[in-house]
Specification:
- The protein has a single domain, classed as MetI-like fold (Orthogonal Bundle), CATH 1.10.3720.10.
- The chain contains 12 helices and 4 strands; from the N terminus they run E-H-H-H-H-H-E-E-H-H-H-H-H-H-H-E.
- Strands 1-4 form a two-stranded antiparallel sheet. The chain has a two-stranded antiparallel ribbon with strand order 2-3.
- Helix 2 crosses helix 11, helix 4 crosses helix 7 and helix 10 runs antiparallel to helix 11.
- It is flat, with a radius of gyration of 29 Å.
- It is found in: Cell membrane.
- Keywords: Amino-acid transport, Cell membrane, Membrane, Transmembrane, Transmembrane helix, Transport.
């Protein structure tokens, strides 16, 4: 019978065989994972059974008053230093991007100095600033007119010295992070805002910085976590933070390792708590992007963030092969 012309080319043909995707087995990865798990279990078991660790002392000191007093100082030092550092960092970044040569040079010198000297040196310097200036005076430069005068040690307490050292050191890094975020925004956004009559300050506040936050938030969150841990360095000037109080106690009872375990446990707890708002901020400012800023809390905590790995793989991915079902 002649063809009618209405049949499709495959009409009446046998259905195509279904393809089955089979994942390639990586036996080397499996062996390495098992070996790593066994080594980790052995290490944890060795630490747990070690009598020199004195878990009873760890438990007795985990919730003592001196620990909570040190935690309070550590938290407010972190919050205060990061707040000052971010405010100063934004100002320095704007100065660095300014067309004014004087502002650009001042910002560059600030970053060069405070990023180029160790934080420990800066903390000790502020802690012993009275050796350089015994008296703090505020007045008219190059005259004898003075509005305020007081001994440096009465004004610059160990806590304030620690706050200034941490904030100024961090401001140098924060300014570079903010500068990179501002430069990541397309210049057309600024030009469009100016064409609508927006002033440069309003353009920066309403247009550029909100878009730059997607780039600024991840490294700034990491810097906040790093700041929390760097507060331990202020123990050299006895700023009564967590590490200072821990050192004072183990200097008296000589139980160094158990008390260091107490400090480590609390630092881990605080870092884990900070990972939650960081992940939320990254998701918020990452909306509308390719990855959607969907770095989860546990991914942020254990892997340092980034976009999650897709669950599925395409059929032509190098880790998969196709086999026709026979």
């Amino acid at each position: 019978m002649a063809a009618t012309g209405t049949e499709t080319p495959h009409q009446g043909a046998a259905p195509a065989e279904e393809l089955r995707v089979v994942r390639v087995r990586h036996w080397g990865r499996l062996v390495a994972a098992v070996a790593a798990a066994v080594a980790l279990a052995g290490l944890l078991g060795s630490v747990a059974r070690n009598r020199n660790l004195r878990w009873d002392i760890v438990g007795d000191n985990l919730f003592r008053d001196f620990v909570f007093e040190g935690l309070f100082t550590t938290v407010w030092l972190t919050a205060g230093a990061m707040t000052l550092a971010v405010v100063l960092g934004v100002l320095l970044a704007v100065m660095r991007l300014s067309d004014n040569l004087v502002l650009k040079v001042i910002s560059g010198l600030f970053v060069w100095f405070f990023r180029g000297t160790p934080l420990l040196v800066q903390i000790i310097f502020w802690g012993f600033a009275a050796a350089l200036y015994p008296v703090v005076m505020i007045g008219v430069p190059f005259t004898d007119v003075t509005f305020f005068s007081a001994p440096t040690n009465s004004v610059l307490t160990p806590g304030l010295a620690a706050l200034l050292a941490l904030a100024l050191h961090e401001a140098a890094y924060a300014s570079e992070i903010v500068r990179a975020g501002i430069q990541s925004v397309d210049t057309g956004q600024t030009e469009a805002a100016h064409s609508l009559g927006m002033r440069p300050t309003k353009t920066m506040r309403r247009i550029v910085l909100p878009q730059a936050m997607r780039v600024i938030t991840p490294p700034m969150g990491n810097e906040t976590i790093n700041m929390l841990k760097m507060t331990a360095l202020v123990s050299v000037i006895n700023a009564h933070d967590l590490m200072s109080n821990i050192q004072a106690v183990y200097a008296a009872n000589y139980q160094v390792i158990p008390l260091l375990v107490v400090a480590s446990a609390w630092y881990l707890a605080m870092v884990s708590a900070l990972s939650v708002p960081q992940a939320w901020l990254e998701r918020r400012f990452g909306r509308g992007t390719a990855d959607g800023g969907q770095a989860g809390v546990f991914q942020r905590m254990f892997t340092g963030g980034g976009s999650p790995v897709p669950v599925g793989r395409p059929a032509d991915h190098p880790d998969t092969v196709e086999e026709a079902r026979s």
